[in-house]
Amino acid sequence: MFFGFLKNGVKGLFHGFFSGEILRWAPFLIALLLLLTWGVHSFRVLSPGLADSSDGRKVIEEMIAKIAKTDPQAAEQIRAASQGKKEKGLAVALLYQKKVKGDRGIVELADQLATGSPLLELFDLATDSTICPDPDSRREFIAAHGSILALTGSEEIFADRVQAQVVVRQHMARIERAKNSPDWPILKYDALAVAILDGIEDPLLRSYYLDNREWLGEALAEFRGKNKDGEPIPPTPQDWGALIAVAKKYHPLTRDVVRGDGADQVAGSEGLAMFLDHGDTINGDIIKNGDIIKSCTDKGLPALETVAVLFANPAWPATSEKLVEIFQNRKTVWAAAMTSPLVLNLDEKAPKYSEKLISKFGHDGIATLVLNVCQGFEEPAAQSIDKYGDLAIYSLKKYGEIRQFQTAMKMPGGFRAPAYMVIKGNAGLITVNNQFAVDQEFNANGDPQGKWGWKDVPIVGAPIHVVRNFANDVPNEWGDLGWAALDIADGVLLVATIGTTAGGTAAKQAAKQAAKKIAIEGAEAAAKASIKGSRAGALIAYKNAPQL
Fold first, then answer.
1. What is the DSSP string of 494-544?
2. Which of 99, 142, 151, 172 could crosslink 164 through cysteines, CB 3.0-4.6 Å?
3. CB under 8 Å to 346, separation ≥6 — which residues?
4. What is the DSSP string of 145-200?
5. Most confident among 40-49, 349-358, 444-453 (mean pLDDT)
6. Is the pLDDT confidence value at 470 over 60?
């Protein structure tokens, strides 16, 4: 899922976010690099002769003699720097550079030695008998931190080697701090834990992370925060601490959500982040997503489905009671709510009809139509669609923004107004908000008065084939119904703002734009695509939509 996206787009991610902001992003970069590239680079430093080199001076002299033939200056730099250095650490560093980059790697290391090489610092630690007392522990230590070594000269990630040096130095500083931790026996073989736990002092949180790092480490390494504009920002130790705390509070539920139930249902960092409090309130009380998820699962709701519904509907004022009620009584609404961010808003406005409307018209974006065109009379509109189907859809779209029609929809029995306009046409606007006039044509149940039926209706307000199809129970096509609605951008804005304090205004303004050329399905399709393609991006869009 999201982890795969990061792995595939790692080069663009680094080039896009880290240029000029290396210090700010370094902790996140270290965590992500260690996660993504450990297996790629660690084998290079585990080859025979590297970790087990015992005769450091001999290796150094052999390397100096070899490089002197092509670069005498580099040879002298290595010789000068080797005076007073730990010979074994320098020998292993030279072997590593030779193994990975050939002679060019040795020259690069020679350039770094004058000012201090973090690569050499790491190998000095690896060859320190108080840290790694035997070859096996030395190999394990080098393997654990092998990925970070790749940064010292990775042209794919850093165009500027100095930036890579900064990142590696920061990691080395964390290792030095970790050496004083009671968790050092574990940390020295887990570079990701070193990066994540640096700055987290609570012993209970540290202990919980170390006990659960197999699944929690990946989720934390994936996590990125966002600023008020929805742009990605690096996680801070406080962010990681909050995620560890919430994982601990709701364990084992958080573990089950992060792991999911297979490759297609892995929630990862986004699933874990859904347990955090997002600052929204209901009647002044902070919404505690973690409490909601736990309460729902305690009552039998599937954890992953609950998280998916909350993720897809961040602007919907969720409570466990409402979620349980929908899950138990409106299965179609529940299923659609996992991918469609407007379904629960429709259910909120018209709970009596939402299940039937989503079952019959859900694929046509019926929630978008009702919430956009029928603001202020959503329930009678839903009742009308339930009663008259395609005829109501056509009539609501055609007359939904006209004041007389809106007044009629809000009157008792207003659900009949769309059908009334079908038989009266535009002239019906004069009498549609006259209760007596509508009663002359339709009874209280919305059926035609007298003996006439829809097959006999004098067509005025709708294309004849639309009414004929309705009379014969034949579905109409989009073009038949005239669902000309929103420009794609306006559609996405509608999806993003429905349910927020500014949602009504934004949706209304979007609906009145002159460029209403694309069908309403554009908004619904765009919403679904945003969730399917990038769940994190969808969450950012819904929570931080620009206001018109």
1. HHHHTTSTTHHHHHHHHHT-TT--SBTHHHHHHHHHHHHH-HHHHHHHHHS
2. 151
3. 354, 357, 358, 366, 367, 370, 371, 378, 382
4. THHHHHTTS-TTT-SSHHHHHHHHHHHHHHHHHHTTSTTHHHHTT-HHHHHHHTT-
5. 349-358
6. no
Type of residue at 387: K
Rounded distance between C-alpha atoms, residue 497 and residue 516, angstroms: 18
Please enumerate in sequence order all residues whose Cβ is within 8 A of that of 439, keeping only pairs 6 or more positions apart, or say none. 413, 449
Q: Among positive and negative, which fits the CA dihedral 339, 341, 346, 349? A: positive
Cα diameter, the chain: 109
3-class state of residue 281 by DSSP = strand
Distance of CA 129 to the CA centre of its chain: 45
Question: What 3-state class would DSSP assign to 417?
Answer: helix
Q: Mind giving me the DSSP string for 71-88?
A: -HHHHHHHHHHHTTS-HH
Q: 168: which residues sit within 8 A by CB, 6+ positions away?
A: 118, 119, 122, 148, 149, 151, 152
**Parallel, antiparallel, or unpaired for β 232-233 and 281-282?**
unpaired
d(CA 270, CA 535): 8
pTM metric for this prediction: 0.65
How far is it, in rounded angstroms, from Cα 154 to Cα 337?
44
d(CA 483, CA 492): 16
Kindly report the CA angle at 303 between 299 and 306, in degrees rounded to 5? 90
Alpha-carbon distance of 280 to 542, in angstroms, equals 13
pLDDT of 325 > 80? The answer is yes
Q: Is 74 a residue whose pLDDT tops 50?
A: yes
Spell out the SS3 assignment of 318-346.
CCHHHHHHHHHHCHHHHHHHCCCCCHHHH
d(C-alpha 390, C-alpha 384), whole Å:
10
Q: Tell me the DSSP string of 461-507.
A: SS-HHHHHHHHTT-PPPHHHHT-B---HHHHHHHHHHTTSTTHHHHH
Flag whether pLDDT at 292 surpasses 60. Answer: yes
Q: What is the mean pLDDT of residues 131-142?
A: 83
Q: Check: CB of residue 219 under 8 Å from CB of residue 269.
A: yes
Residue 286, strand partner residues: 281
Q: What integer best gives the mean pLDDT of the chain?
A: 71
- 350 pLDDT more than 90: yes
Q: Is residue 187 predicted with pLDDT exceeding 50?
A: yes
- In this predicted structure, the answer to whether residue 21 has a pLDDT above a threshold of 80 is no
Backbone φ and ψ for 434, nearest 5 degrees, come out as -100, 110
Straight-line distance from the first to the last Cα atom of the chain, in angstroms, rounded to the nearest whole number = 33
Residue 80 phi, psi (nearest 5): -65, -40
